[in-house]
Amino acid sequence: MFHSRLFGAALLLALASTANATSFVVTTDTVVRGVAASTDATSDVSSSFRDDKIVQAARDDAASFVASHGDIRGAKLESAFAHIRQQTPTLQASDAQLAQAILAL
After folding, report:
1. More confident residue, 87 or 8
2. 52 falls in which pLDDT band (50, 70, 90)?
3. Most buried pick, 3, 14, 76, 81, via CB within 10 A?
């Protein structure tokens, strides 16, 4: 009787640790996919708008936007956001990601 309970407890512990490991892997995969999508969007913007005058003119506004965590939104930056979204309508990037991409140019 004691051995069967011990075996049952060991089996339960093994299954629980497997579930935790699987949960960790799924969570990690989700985070990595999100970061990869953000990086892809940022690199797409930075490579295609490197010489764009509207985007280049918004660099100072982008720096203020990033430094203020989105509280300061200059007119040139708003114009650049609209221009970027018009040129690449399939781009799924937030304003913060776009501002960081502008600064990375």
Report:
1. 87
2. confident
3. 81
Total residues found in the chain within this entry:
105
Q: What is the DSSP string of 51-97?
A: T-HHHHHTHHHHHHHHHTTTS---HHHHHHHHHHHHH-TT----HHH
Contacts of 96 (CB under 8 A, 6+ apart): 65, 66, 70
Domain with 59, as residue range(s), is: 2-104
Measured distance between the N- and C-terminal CA atoms of the chain, rounded to whole angstroms: 70
What pLDDT is recorded for position 105? 81
Q: Evaluate if pTM is beyond 0.85.
A: no
- Angle, nearest 10°, between helix axes 95-104 and 75-87? 100
Total number of domains in the chain: 1
> CA–CA separation, 92 vs 30, rounded Å?
17
**Averaged pLDDT for residues 60-66:** 94
Q: What's the token pair of residue 50?
A: 């490197």
